[in-house]
Amino acid sequence: MDVLLLPGDGIGPEITAVTRNVLEALDRSFSLGLKFTSEDVGFASLEKHGATITPELIERARKADLAILGPVDTAHYPPADQGGINPSAALRINLDLYANVRPSKVFEGLPALARNMDLVIVRENTEGFYADRTMYAGTGEVMPTPDLALAMRKVTRQGSYRVSAFAARLAAKRRGHLTIVHKANVLKLSDGLFLSEAEKAAAEQGGLAVREEHVDAMASLLVRTPDAFDVIVTTNMFGDILSNEAAELAGGLGLSGSLNVGDENAIAQASHGSAPDIAGKNIANPVSLLLSTVLLLDWKGAETGRSDLQQAANRLDKAISEMLKSPDTRTADLAGSLSCRDFGSVLVDRIR
Ligand code: NAD
């Protein structure tokens, strides 16, 4: 089974190295038959190939059995015509990874703002308000005059339906509760379209308790009653923002896994950014990328009927939860004392 690692920028290489060591340990324990390749993406690719991601790499990712992408420092890339392409967006669009699955849960023994929470945000991943992925040509932002900037948001019937159907299936496998988050009271056409398709997908799934919330109310409700939610489906930017809020409620940004999923492919990707402020210091928390890898192994296991991949995912998930119980086995962002590499070494020992 071919594993493609794309370390990315900032803390990406550090957390990807830990993820590789952990996967190698799981490979030894479960005889998964993993073969690893690492390819440059982000600044390393810009230097070598003149672009932060190349068409060849996108095709390579399409063919990989398991693909893992580190965070990318898009804010510091040059303009697109000088090679600064958002690799994350390019992969999501080209591989049609339309659902971004972002679970957040409270871990036993780990201090968190939320007392009790175990939810999954399913965020539409290929359209919405992100200017670099809403247009066939050009971008979704224009400046008709020096004093006027406009941003366009794309919401399609098909895009809204398929992500909602995905979320409804997930809710049916979990606790059977789906919350549709929107702002259709103001964005009557665009969010109205999203809402009607989400309602349709939820009704077709059948047997779900369905709730609808405006995004601003949802931001409060997540803090007030985080335990009231199971699966939440929403548009791209709302999902991006709410999932950071949920991660923080669970204990921190370094804690939440994220999987980009389509009908054919999936890519694991940490839900946080490249954290340039701590890059190279060996203090980053690798848990988000590791939990993304748990999601990826589980997805691949379900797709291929390989229970060994799901068992490996389960063992990794449990070992991470065990480590988070004690400050002695946490990283600095969680008031622990382990470095990024040491967290990886202890984890490797525990999953043998
Ligand atoms: P960020 O998520 O990189 O960092 C926010 C804060 O959280 C920083 O203080 C950082 O040190 C901390 N943090 C993040 N991940 C951590 C981890 N694993 N362990 C410990 N601390 C962690 O967000 P930002 O500073 O807004 O963005 C930095 C760059 O990342 C920008 O170029 C942005 O565009 C990009 N970005 C990329 C992704 C992605 O690749 N998926 C997502 C968000 C932002």
Automatic annotation (TrEMBL):
Keywords for the protein's UniProt record, in alphabetical order: Oxidoreductase
PROSITE patterns per UniProt: IDH_IMDH
Domain called Isopropylmalate dehydrogenase-like: residue spans: 2-347
Origin superkingdom: Bacteria
Name of the protein in its database record: Isopropylmalate dehydrogenase-like domain-containing protein
Organism in which the protein naturally occurs: Thalassospira permensis NBRC 106175
Gene3D superfamilies tied to this protein: Isopropylmalate Dehydrogenase
Family: Belongs to the isocitrate and isopropylmalate dehydrogenases family.
Origin organism lineage: Bacteria, Pseudomonadati, Pseudomonadota, Alphaproteobacteria, Rhodospirillales
InterPro entries: IsoCit/isopropylmalate_DH_CS (IPR019818), IsoPropMal-DH-like_dom (IPR024084)
